[in-house]
Amino acid sequence: MDPMAVIEKYYPAGSPLHCILVDHSRQVAEKSLEIARNLADPDLDLLFIKQAALLHDIGIFLTASPKLGCTGEAPYVCHGYLGRELLDSEGLDPAYGRVAERHTGAGISLDTINRHNLPLPRRDMVPVTPAEKIICCADKFFSKTGPARHRPRTVPQILADLNAIDPAHARRFARWAQEFRL
């Protein structure tokens, strides 16, 4: 499976959004591999982690995010589950779609979806597998816009941002940061 071929099916090569997505996804893939290698877990599939990290944000073009140049109709919070639907429609192993769906925030619980009436399917979207947790965690270090686009954020910055969204996200990320020795 060639992640770039999948990306370029939906993002014209060289377009501004393609560049933003690919730059961000490569950063997340590199950080994911760094985390996985530091864990030295022989059961981690490094090829899957790299490929899934490259594809985790494939659904952003389906959302309305003017600062990224996304002209879709859905709110940005939907890009994870929309990415899952897209990857599933490509016939990929469902594990790729689950990574896309579960990486938003530090995962979004069904309780959070219901409590905030988020425009998401009513199901838990919290990372479960080690690969899902690693990619979700790595994603938080890089933004697609602003200063964090070119340099990683720090764990305290990530925790502060996640806490402002939902303290449960910050607690989940803090557990991963400790587990992954970040």
UniProtKB/TrEMBL annotation:
Residues 22-141 form the HD domain. SUPFAM superfamilies: HD-domain/PDEase-like (SSF109604). It holds the Pfam family HD. This is HD domain-containing protein. It comes from Desulfotignum phosphitoxidans DSM 13687.
